């Protein structure tokens, strides 16, 4: 038996699975979430930090990878990530994107009226374990990892097979009562394949990092597919489009 705890993170929901002898963190949180997660384990669960055995990083954005390395240092937990070559934030473009993603997370926090916190984190992840598609989590065999790319090139979704609950991280976002594709969306074709994979898995419940959790029957995946971008929607494309519009007028966008 296990209990899946929901914690309010800095800008996202944190899911922590508690077992009799170990803990599993379904994502790497924000850098600002490290203290609250540690406090929850020690004070609410009355357990030592060393009970945290595994931290999954579903992708490299600040609210999913920002606390992973520090939490691993404090607890001794292993870090698991998708088996994808290279680093997401590699090169000069990656350095600039890392900065912009941190600024975007700060902007989201301000929109949510959260206090400003230190969000800086390493742009290169050093995972202990690399997960292939449809692979069980080491030490937690009832959880299955699935590659669900599109938002980035290394997104993971995590299925708890006995209950049918599927944590999809940022694969879906709920805004003003509607389910939509996330921003940025680097790989629209992969994204569509990922939604079809979720549809085929037929989970009983879908857990979002942003927007809550819902039975699959309440999520119109066909509508999300129909409204999803067919070309990449990224920071850089947005900036270039705004520059073209400023220089040549709205017809150039």
Instruction: Provide the succession of SSEs.
Output: EEEHEHHEHEEEEEEEHEEHH
Show unreliable segments: none
Biggest β-sheet, characterized?
A: 6 strands, mixed
The geometry reads as: globular
Number of helices: 7
* Spatial separation of the terminal alpha carbons: 54 Å
Our estimate of the beta-strand percent is 15-25%
Query: How do the strands line up in the largest sheet?
Result: 1-2-3-4-5-6
Rg (C-alpha, Å):
18 Å
Strand pairing plus helix content: what structural class? alpha/beta
Q: Residue share in helices?
A: 25-40%
The overall average pLDDT, rounded, is 94
Task: Give a structural overview.
There is one protein chain. The strands form three sheets. A six-stranded mixed β-sheet has the order 1-2-3-4-5-6, covered by helices on one side. A six-stranded mixed β-sheet has the order 7-8-9-10-13-14, with no helix packed on it. Strands 11-12 form a two-stranded antiparallel sheet. The chain is built from seven helices and 14 strands. The chain is α/β, with parallel strands linked by helices. Strand 3 (23-25), helix 1 (34-44) and strand 4 (52-56) form a beta-alpha-beta unit.
């Amino acid at each position: 038996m296990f209990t899946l705890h929901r914690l309010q993170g800095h800008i996202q929901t944190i899911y922590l699975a508690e077992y009799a002898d170990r803990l599993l963190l379904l994502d790497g949180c924000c850098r600002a979430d490290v203290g609250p997660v540690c406090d929850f384990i020690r004070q609410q669960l009355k357990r030592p930090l060393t009970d945290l055995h595994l931290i999954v990083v579903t992708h490299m954005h600040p609210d999913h990878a920002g606390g992973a390395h520090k939490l691993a240092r404090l607890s001794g937990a292993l870090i698991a990530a998708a088996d994808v070559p290279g680093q997401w934030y590699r090169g000069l473009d990656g350095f600039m994107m890392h900065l912009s993603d941190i600024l975007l997370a700060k902007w989201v926090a301000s929109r949510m009226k959260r206090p400003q916190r230190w969000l800086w984190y390493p742009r290169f992840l050093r995972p202990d374990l690399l997960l292939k598609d449809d692979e069980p989590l080491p030490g937690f065999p009832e959880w299955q990892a699935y590659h669900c790319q599109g938002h980035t090139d290394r997104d993971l979704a995590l299925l708890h097979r006995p209950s049918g609950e599927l944590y999809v991280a940022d694969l879906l976002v709920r805004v003003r009562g509607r389910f939509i594709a996330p921003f940025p969306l680097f790989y629209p074709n992969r994204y569509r394949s990922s939604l079809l994979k979720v549809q085929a898995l037929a989970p009983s419940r879908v857990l979002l990092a942003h927007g809550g959790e819902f039975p699959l029957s309440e999520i119109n995946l066909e509508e999300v597919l129909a409204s999803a971008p067919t070309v990449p929607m990224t920071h850089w494309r947005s900036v270039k489009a705004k520059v073209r519009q400023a220089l040549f007028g709205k017809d150039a966008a």
